[in-house]
Amino acid sequence: MARSAVRYALTMVLTLASGCASFGMVSDGTSVSFGPAYAGELVDAVKLPTSGTGFFTPRRWRVRGLRYGTDEMVSALIYVGRRIDAELPGDAFAVADMSPRRGGPSAWHHSHQTGRDADLLFFVTDAEGHPLPPSEMPHFDKNGVGHTHNGREVHFDVRRNWTLVRAIIENPLAQAQFIFIADWLKAELLTYATQIGEPTWLLVAASYILHQPSDSLVHDDHMHVRVYCAQTDLSLGCLDRGPLRWNKKGYKYADQIPRRYVGSRMLAVIEAASSQALIAMATLPLRR
Q1: pTM of the predicted model, to two decimals?
Q2: 200-209 vs 183-195: helix axis angle to the nearest 10?
Q3: What's the distance, CA 240 to chain centroid?
Q4: What's the alpha-carbon Rg for the chain, to the nearest Å?
Q5: What is the pLDDT of residues 157-203, one digit of tens each?
Q6: How would you class 189 by CB atoms within 10 Å of its CB: exposed for 0-12, middle for 13-18, buried for 19 or more?
Q7: Share of the chain above pLDDT 90, in %
Q8: What pLDDT, in 10s, does the model give residues 121-154?
Q9: CA 181, 120, 128, 82: dihedral to nearest 10 degrees?
Q10: How far is CA 268 from CA 76, 172, 203, 271, 274, in A?
Q11: 46 near 31, Cβ under 8 Å?
């Protein structure tokens, strides 16, 4: 009996070890982001639809196949699209590259490997200030002026880009760690947000999350959104590189962001968004 019990226990251990070694064989069907964003994998990815309420992907990026993310990331983008549709009627933001289906590197990116990254095109206007649909990645100078591939002058649309940034920060489905963007465009956004009277907690959050990277391009032609590992993925090997969640450090900024205020504010955002969040989750593509 004792030998049988030992043999059974060893069999179970080897079976479980085998399942873990071939990561993804044992799965509950939900996504797993594994490793850091620049050297990881994506298991049971979700594909973002080509278009939906408030968002779309231009053909240039659609044909690359980098349309995949975690459950949380895809849900967050769908949620942000619904916010954009509600706050900017008739507009839609453009999603460029996300991650390959199984994660890992691609021909276009060193990061974007774990389903937690997405490139978003900037909203732009023409020289007269008329909104244009986002379709390219023109580089913007320190006056917020850029040019399309055919030489047309376009301007960084501060109002609509701030609306997009605010929706990303406030989304309740995947907490933004970074929105990579050039320093001078970040300054424009924060100046505008201050002028229209955005709350202190949001300005402080944006000042941390909007970030010009030091180890890659400055991101003056698009914003690159990275979200934190889902809590459920941390125990499975997901790795956050960079600062901890900014709102866990409220004690260091008590004069600016009372912890009670931050907590109640974020709770209010989540409660107000709960119905939209449920809709967003319901629109995820059916799994196999």
Answers
A1: 0.78
A2: 180
A3: 13
A4: 21
A5: 999 999 999 999 999 999 999 999 999 999 999 999 999 999 988 99
A6: buried
A7: 57
A8: 999 999 999 999 899 999 999 999 999 999 999 9
A9: -120
A10: 17, 10, 17, 5, 10
A11: yes
**CA 53 and chain centroid, separation:** 17
DSSP 141-210: -TTSEEE-TT--EEEE-HHHHHHHHHHHHH-SSS-EEEEE--HHHHHHHHHHHHHTT--HHHHHHHHHHE
Residue 250 near residue 257 (C-beta atoms within 8 A): yes
Residue 130: both structure tokens together: 């008329």
Nearest alpha-carbon partner for 72 in 264, 208, 226: 226
What totals of helices (H) and strands (E) does the chain contain, helices first? Answer: 8, 15
**Token duo for residue 98:** 């996300």
C-alpha 246/C-alpha 278 separation (Å) is 26
The total number of residues written for the chain in this structure:
288
Report DSSP state, residue 95: B
Which amino acid does the sequence have at 148? T
Query: From the CB of residue 80, how many other CB atoms can be counted at a distance below 10 Å?
Result: 30
Question: Which two three-digit tokens encode residue 196?
Answer: 């229209």
